[in-house]
Amino acid sequence: MTALSWLSQFFLNTLFLLILYLCQRLWFQQSRAWWRKRRWPLAPHLILFIGLMAGVAWVFHFHYAYLPPGLWWLYGLLAVYFIGSIPAAAVWGLWLGLRRILLRRPPATAADMGRRRFLNSAAGACALAPLACAGYGFLIERTDVRITHVSIPLERRFAHLRGLTMAIIADIHLSPYFDARDLARVVARINRLRPDLITILGDFISFRTTIPVVMQTLAPLRARYGKFGCLGNHEQIKQVQNRVTRACAGVGIEILRFSGRELAIPGGKLNLMGVDFFANNRCQDVRSIAGCVRPRDYNVLLSHNPNVFSHLGAMPIELTLAGHTHGGQIRLHEGPLDITPVELVTPYIAGLYRNQGRYLYVNRGLGTVMVPIRFGARPEITHLQLG
Fold first, then answer.
1. CB burial class (10 A; 0-12, 13-18, 19+) of residue 73?
2. pLDDT tens per residue across span 10-66
């Protein structure tokens, strides 16, 4: 990590912790005032709030792959508070500021008092909305796997590939929040699609001990021209690249590590290539795959990090498939509004991108990291068709 990237990461982490502190301070003050109005003893409130903050710290620092059985619901509810309380505090804090400006005078009539109660209730409902969205993302959207159908145009010289289909998944991250049963349902749905080719775009695991379960669950996948994959940053973090590669080979999944495989398709060939995960400051190193490119074939690159798409140079790679972003995992996307933390690290969040006749597709993944919540970024199986 360069000094500049370290400083920027330190700044972002410090800024986030400051925002988190200010939000929790606001909720402490507001809940204490509410508690005091009811003339309840203040000591239990302090104990409860300290317990809640300990829970937030637990969510912030503890990876849920390590969760003991029976604690995943508690962790999930704390994660809902952790994610929802920040925008909720912003909304409520904004209302408190406006209230001081707009409602400085005491109410003159009963009607004025009624209007104030209505405005307070409306502001409270708006403040609760982010918590409700986080709860929805935890309870519903987290496991609501969608099949996305995508068509990629072909040049005339690749007419032999017209109609070829690929099933694409990424970011399995097996955990109590996306377990073997969830993955088995995904495998069954892929097999019902009868794809010609299956690609898995890295992050098979979050935790070493889940490797056998992941492989056993992926074993029933079937595709006419085979099953292929690349490695992600979590294989790199856990230093299990070779172990995952061998385990995948044991269930018929070929991991492409700076290598390619020419597939014989009736009428021609398709050249499939794969690279290991590149950090953002090393994405230009994707050009090391140049020796595997076949200029006369249709070239498909598997890369966990979508940012390599901006560094392909003159290499004639027609299609790049990537994951890593989880589609933002928590994303507000309505019309021109598009807000997600992932925008800080990549312009390629989810879906299809085109640049000078080349295509990139970013799969939203299946599992979650950091918090077991998805909002505006449902888990995805991509059913991609050429032509």
1. exposed
2. 777 788 788 888 888 888 888 888 888 888 888 888 888 888 888 877 776 666 656
Q: Are residues 44 and 88 in the same domain?
A: yes
DSSP 162: T
Q: Is the same domain home to 203 and 320? A: yes
Separation of first and last alpha carbons in the chain: 41
The residue type at 270: L
- Tell me which residue has tokens 């309840």: 40
Instruction: Tell me if 382 sits within 8 A of 187, measured CB to CB.
Output: no
Is the pLDDT at 234 greater than 90, yes or no?
yes
What would the DSSP string read from start to end of 19-58?
Answer: HHHHHHHHHHHHHHHHHHHTT--HHHHHHHHHHHHHHHHH
Pairing assessment for the beta strands 197-201 and 165-169 based on DSSP bridges: parallel
Identify each DSSP E strand in the chain by its residue range: 146-152, 165-169, 197-201, 227-230, 253-255, 259-265, 268-274, 298-302, 319-322, 332-334, 337-339, 351-355, 358-362, 380-386
Q: Mind giving me the DSSP string for 142-154?
A: GG--EEEEEEE--
Question: For the chain, what is the domain count?
Answer: 2
Q: In this structure, what token pair is assigned to residue 125?
A: 């409902």
Supply the pTM of this predicted model. Answer: 0.88
**Close Cβ partners of 339 (under 8 Å, ≥ 6 residues apart):** 331, 332, 333
**pLDDT tier at 307, thresholds 50, 70, 90:** very high
Residue 53 sits in the same domain as residue 154:
no
The CATH number given to whatever domain includes residue 173 is 3.60.21.10
Name the domain boundary from 99, 119, 139.
139
Per the structure, the complete domain to which residue 256 belongs is given by 146-386
Nearest to 22 by CA among 121, 94, 70, 100: 94
